[in-house]
Design brief:
By secondary structure, the protein is an alpha+beta fold. It has one domain: Nucleoside Triphosphate Pyrophosphohydrolase. The chain has 3 helices and 8 strands, in the order ββββαββββαα. The strands form 2 sheets. Strands 1, 4, 5, 6 and 7 form a 5-stranded mixed sheet that branches. Strands 3-2-8 form a 3-stranded antiparallel sheet. Bound molecules: 8-OXO-guanosine-5'-triphosphate. 8-OXO-guanosine-5'-triphosphate (8GT) binds next to strand 1 and strand 4. This is 8-oxo-dGTP diphosphatase.
C-alpha cells in the first residue's frame, strides 16, 4: 500500500519593511496563533489566483493599515513545520503611506530592529534564512 503524497507547501509572503534609518519592522505573533509570541516579518498566505507581490501589499494593508512599495524579492525556500510545510516568499519593501499599527488579531507588538537586534529575538524558525539573506553574516 502506498501512502498519500504530502500536501503542497503553502505559499507565504513576508515583507522586510526597511526605514530610512535601515531599521526593519518585525512583528510578534499573538499568543493564540500557530507559533504564538514568536517574532516574524509581517505577511501571510497567498490567496488562490493572487500574485505574491499583490498578496504582500494586501496583507500589509490588512495587518498594519499601511501602504508599501514592494521592492526586490529575496530567494524563496521551503520550510517544514511538523504540521505543515510553507514556501517562504520574502520581499524588501518600503512604507509608502501610513504608520504601521498592529491589528490586535494579527500581532501583539511591533518593533523596528537592526541586524544585531533581530538576531536576539525569538524568531519563527522559517525566518532565519530570510534574516541571513538580507544581512549576510
Ligand atoms: N506572515 C508570516 N508568516 C510566517 C512567517 N514565518 C513563518 O514561519 N510563518 C508561518 O507562515 C504561515 C502564515 O500564517 P499567517 O497566520 O501569517 O497567515 P494568514 O494571516 O494569511 O493566515 P490565517 O488567516 O490563516 O491566520 C504560518 O504557519 C506562520 O507561522 C513570517 O515571517 N511571516
Amino acid at each position: 500500500m502506498s501512502s498519500a503524497p504530502p500536501p503542497p507547501a503553502i505559499p507565504v509572503v513576508c515583507a522586510l519593511i526597511v526605514a530610512a534609518s535601515g531599521h526593519v519592522l518585525v512583528a510578534q505573533r499573538p499568543a493564540h496563533k500557530h507559533l504564538g509570541l514568536k517574532w516574524e516579518f509581517p505577511g501571510g498566505k497567498v490567496e488562490p489566483g493572487e500574485s505574491p507581490a499583490a498578496a504582500i501589499a494586501r496583507e500589509i494593508q490588512e495587518e498594519l493599515g499601511a501602504t508599501i512599495l514592494v521592492g526586490r524579492a529575496l530567494p524563496t525556500f521551503t520550510h517544514d513545520y511538523a504540521s505543515h510545510q510553507i514556501e517562504m516568499i520574502p520581499f524588501v519593501c518600503q512604507l509608502a503611506a501610513g504608520s504601521p499599527a498592529p491589528h490586535p488579531r494579527e500581532h501583539a507588538a511591533l518593533r523596528w530592529v537592526t541586524s544585531s537586534e533581530i538576531r536576539l529575538l525569538d524568531l519563527a524558525a522559517a525566518d532565519w534564512p530570510v534574516v541571513n539573506a538580507y544581512w549576510p553574516a
